[in-house]
Amino acid sequence: MIKAIVIDDEKNAREAIQQIIDKYFKEISVIGLADDVKSGIRLITELNPDLVLLDIKLPDGTGFDILNHFQDIQFFTIFITAYDKHAIQAFKFSALDYLLKPIDIDEFKLAIDKLLKAREERNTKQKLEIFLENIQNISKEVKRIVLKTSDSIHLVQVNEILRCQSEGNYTKFFFTNKSPILVSKNIKEYFEMLKDYQFFRPHQSHIVNINYIKRFHKLDGGSLIMQDDSIVPVSTRKREELMKIFDNM
Predict the structure, then answer these.
(1) Is the CATH code 3.40.50.80 the one for domain 2-135?
(2) Rounded to whole angstroms, how far apart are CA atoms 155 and 130?
(3) What architecture is domain 144-247?
């Protein structure tokens, strides 16, 4: 049985989360409810939960204050937040699990299912560090991203990513200064994260960092020669968009 604590300052939100868990997840038991930082820290310390569903904004601080209280986080965390573009982007870059208010039942079930499939993986402190770094530095040049492989978690500077290549449901990352890594997410998800940071998708199977394009080869439909001399195809429908990028450089 997975022991869960819900920390949210809104009574209706706490009750809604508990009802969803009681109805859909028999393997999870809600053992405590808290409404602020102080009571949240006390409950976690006393009850030693496996899972904490944590609101970001609390009356006496934030959910991050609760996590920073603990040197070694031994529980899973799912954040609960109102929509904020920068916060959502930072969550995605740091690979932290989150739910938007008002809570959608299907999204909640997906988050819990994902957690149950990765019972051994926590690394909350590492991910939190990247999240706080990204949310405090909105500048596009200073972002770091968490990339999870089958056996490691990599903390990568976005400007070190040279290109990405689809490998079925996986994505292979190529860098300016290290060996490639294979990550278990599809390329579409990563393009949604990277598209505002000087990345272009010239082909459905490829993403490139436009800062590392060496030249555009016009023959045979068109292809990009990258800084590492790799060749990336350009689809016909992406060629005009690519020309506009070159015009603006």
Answers:
(1) no
(2) 8
(3) Beta Barrel (2.40)
